[in-house]
Every structure is written in C-alpha cells, then in structure tokens.
Design a protein that fits this description.
By secondary structure, this protein is an all-beta fold. It has one helix at about 5-15; strands at about 45, 65-75, 75-85, 110-115, 130, 145-150, 155-160, 165-170, 180, 195-205, 210-215, 220-225, 230-235, 235-240, 250-260, 265-275, 280-290, 295, 305-315, 320-330, 340-350. The strands form 5 sheets. A 5-stranded mixed beta sheet has the order 14-18-17-16-15, with no helix packed on it. It has a 4-stranded antiparallel beta sheet with strand order 1-21-20-19, with no helix packed on it. Strands 2-3-4-5 form a 4-stranded antiparallel beta sheet, with no helix packed on it. Strand 8 (about 165-170) and strand 9 (about 180) form a beta hairpin. The longest helix has 10 residues, at about 5-15. The model is unreliable at about 1-30 and about 360-363 (pLDDT under 50).
C-alpha cells in the first residue's frame, strides 16, 4: 500500500497518529477566524524516521537536478514548475543575484510537471514529465505556478504565464490536460505591475470559487461562479501584528485552504510568504469568513529565513500538512554554484507523528 495521504487518513481515523490536543478548539491566542489545527507552529517531518527517506538533504521529498521553485499536492500527485539547465558553458551568476532566487538565465524555459507519490517513505514523490508547455501566443515562452483542484469529476489546472493566468482541464488527476478558452482567465490588468502569478483556488464561504494570486508585491483575489470566468475583487486586507525589527515589504505566493469551523461555519485559511526588509522570507497564515478580509495569526509557522511557495493540505479537521520549498547547496557537476531548491513538508499540530505505530506489547 502507498504510504500517501490515503494511508495517513486511515491512520488518523484509527487514532494511530497522535493529535496535538484533545479538542479542535482555540489553543490560546488564536484570532477568531482561525480556530483549527494548522494555524499555529508547524514542524518539518524528520528523515528518515517519519519520511522513510535516506540520502537526501534534510527532509527533502522532491529533489531535482533541474531548477525547481515550488509545488502543490493534490491526491497522490505533485504538480510543480521545473526547467533543465542550458548547455554548458553555463552563464555566470551575478554577485548581486538575490540569495535563494533561481538564476533563470542558466535554465531553459519553465514547464509544468506532474510527479506521482512513491511507495517508500511518507509523502515522497518521483519527478515526472512535463504536462503543460507554453504554446498559446499570450503565454510567451513558458508556463509555471500550477495549482490543481478537482470539481465534479474534472481536474482543473490553473497556471501562470507571461500574459496572465490560464486554465486547463483533464478527466482525472493523472489525465491529459487541455487548455480551456483562447486566452487567460486573468490578464495583466488584474495585477498592480506586470502580470498576475501564483494562482491558488478554493471554494469560498459562499460556494463560489475564489482565486488568490500574487500581484506585484501584494495578494489579490478574484471570484467566479464556475471556476472559469473570474472577476477581480482587488487586494485582500490583512489585519495583524507588528512584525518587529525587520518590516514586511511584501506578501507573496498565497496558498489557500477552505475549511469548516467546529460550529459548521466555512472559512478560508491563507498561507503566504512575508518578505522582510532584511531579505528574509517567512511563512504566516491568516483566516477569513468572507474570503476578502483576513485576520493574521501572530505565530511564524516555521522558523526559517527562506521558505517559499506554501501549499497546504488538510488531512482532517485536526491535522494540516504544509508543503514548501527550501534552499539547499547543490554540488552536482551541472548545477554547481546555482541556486537550487527542494520540496519539504511540515505538519501541525506539532505533536502529530507519522512514526509507525508501536506494536502491542501483549502480542
């Protein structure tokens, strides 16, 4: 049996994975719109004890020789952006190139790939081939930032390109994706500068579709009744705390999750990068009952200065996984000296464990 989300959900149902607390209520200091697990601190799964993986940097679940920036998981598949290195000699990375950023001139055009969950190790994936390559005139030379939802038996892939955000559909998560429409569902006019990127789509509290996206340093939202024709609503609002010595310059790369409170009230949790004046990228979460006005939780989700592209997955009403990308030092012949990143996964509540259940001593 695959040790994927289906298997983990079964363990949760049997009570073999320990939750952080005995209730789903407010653990203390929680904003009103954030009553669930998955809103406080997360911890990265330990390797190889929990992931089952050996020989990878830390707890990396997806490690590629090609350029990789972020991924999202849907079912037993991971969807991600990747690009192979250009032929040698590789261009030199400028000395002032920002830390943690991929030096894209050293790589070919970005494409969207799909990988399948591995049989060994919790949550680990194989790389997988490209499922979408830039073809339409409005897309320019590359496509990136995939986000996949399932609706009525159809898998819908939202993605970014030079001219905005497009959509493609497949009969299943492992099926062939075909573009819907002749142009983007959101064009450059939906962003403050440039074109919108990093779409993240969920069912909103009112039953419609909400798309959160990066719009040149701020997060904006658009609404749709069918998931195909979107109307921009403008920037989201985020009430929150004083972030201390290094002010927040931007909020970027949203990852949305639709959940329901214990009282049965639907809400949206939005995970995002907080980009600071000192160059740090930190992950936070905010909650909203209307999908537009958010209240931010004060806890930094993971203690790191460079985690990006948060993509949440709810295992149940108590446990949330958060996929993100982290920087690592590559020593490969092709990519030596280039910025590289790998996929990791973290979990909340903190005491949730993916260790194999201990055998009954009586047996």
């Amino acid at each position: 049996m695959k040790r994927g989300l289906v298997a983990v959900a079964g363990l949760l149902a049997l009570g073999l994975i320990a939750p952080a607390c005995s209730t789903i209520g407010d653990p203390g200091g929680m904003p009103e719109a954030l009553p669930h697990g998955g809103t406080g601190a997360f911890r990265v799964l330990e390797a190889p004890e929990e992931t089952g993986l050996r020989g990878t940097p830390g707890a990396a679940l997806l490690l590629l020789e090609d350029a990789f920036v972020g991924a999202m998981v849907q079912g037993d598949f991971v969807f991600f952006t990747s690009a192979p290195p250009v032929e040698e000699p590789l261009p030199m990375v400028p000395e002032d190139h920002p830390a943690g950023e991929i030096f894209w001139p050293a790589f070919e055009a970005r494409r969207i790939h799909r990988g399948a969950r591995r049989d060994d190790g919790f949550g680990a994936f194989e790389g997988g081939g490209a499922i979408l390559t830039a073809e339409a005139a409005w897309e320019g030379e590359e496509v990136f930032d995939p986000w996949v939802v399932e609706d009525g038996g159809v898998a819908r892939l939202y993605y970014a390109a030079d001219g905005g955000i497009g959509v493609a559909e497949a009969p299943s998560l492992d099926g062939a994706f075909t573009r819907v429409g002749d142009g983007p569902v959101l064009g450059p006019e939906a962003a403050a500068t440039g074109a919108p990127t990093r779409p993240s789509v969920v069912r909103g509290p009112e039953g419609d579709w909400l798309m959160y996206y990066d719009a040149g340093g701020e997060i904006r939202v658009a609404r749709s009744s069918d998931g195909l024709a979107f109307t921009p609503l403008g920037p989201i609002t985020v009430e929150g705390m004083d972030l201390g010595e290094s002010p927040e310059l931007e909020r970027a790369h949203p990852g949305a999750l639709a959940v329901t409170t214990p009282a049965g009230r639907p809400l949206v949790r939005l995970y995002f990068e907080s980009i600071r004046e000192d160059g740090a990228h930190k992950l936070y979460v905010a909650g909203s009952f209307d999908g537009v006005a958010f209240e931010r939780h004060e806890v930094e989700l993971l203690e790191s200065v460079d985690l990006r592209y948060p993509a949440p997955v709810a295992l149940d009403e108590r446990v949330t996984l958060l996929y993100a990308s982290t920087r690592f030092n590559s020593v490969g012949r092709i990519t030596r000296g280039l910025q590289k990143r790998a996929l990791i996964v973290s979990v909340a509540p903190l005491s949730t464990s993916f260790l194999p259940p201990e055998e009954d001593e009586a047996e």
